[in-house]
Amino acid sequence: xxxxxxxxxxxxxxxxxxxxxxxxxxxxxxxxxxxxxxxxxxxxxxxxxxxxxxxxxxxxxxxxxxxxxxxxxxxxxxxxxxxxxxxxxxxxxxxxxxxxxxxxxxxxxxxxxxxxxxxxxxxxxxxxxxxxxxxxxxxxxxxxxxxxxxxxxxxxxxxxxxxxxxxxxxxxxxxxxxxxxxxxxxxxxxxxxxxxxxxxxxxxxxxxxxxxxxxxxxxxxxxxxxxxxxxxxxxxxxxxxxxxxxxxxxxxxxxxxxxxxxxxxxxxxxxxxxxxxxxxxxxxxxxxxxxxxxxxxxxxxxxxxxxxxxxxxxxxxxxxxxxxxxx
Length: 327
Ligand code: CP
Prior knowledge:
By secondary structure, the chain is of the alpha/beta class. Helix content is 34%, strand content 13%.
């Protein structure tokens, strides 16, 4: 018998959001559809909807973040939830308090959701296994394992520009080995039925496991980019590299940096994406990052709608579960 998915409640609804792996096309499409309904909220004079009034969300970022942390905070605020972001550096963890003791103390303050970023792969899953039945966990990035809301905001951005996933070719370029974003994207693209998936990068930065997802691997960037509809660039994640995996940044840029010349072999209407933070002149030229095909800042805006969707789906279930059927 297959193991139950910890992310789902007994009714098959999203209780936690830890990874895009193992969720159905229906779950992922529902996230995209709900996000579409929130996409206009930011443009209104009153940027709020009352969906999560009375709910309390605690952000626990054990690792640095600009985009994810801020958009989670804004998304929760726009859903009218009460939001508290814990400053880990000044929390009692520095006095030796364990992660679980910290969580149980925060639960005692009647919070409903933890949004967690952690340098260790599996941290969000561990927390989800230990929270009270009424508490949900959203993974805001764990080690090199998963960054599911980034994966879904990237799917949202692709769908808005390209429509049906079945008709497009997507290339993911760079440091796939250390990238939680790439893993979340690869699972989501496969589940959503992408027409063709290409992985481009040096041998040292491509994990052998990508073959199992039907991805074509290219070590030559021009060949890999030929005729693609979407180019997703990745940052070199030096903080997760052990030992020398690259000759030098300038040589890396020569071979795998996205320039206007290299982009010219993709389709003329190809979009250029990057989860950020970008390193100009390392994996992407400024002329491309700021150029007409770049949707990098649009991805950030879309992050708000997708995070509102996920939080409202996860906590919105709670009105329906007071019969004690929580999974
Ligand atoms: N894309 C992303 O996760 O960016 P941050 O590290 O700034 O949150």
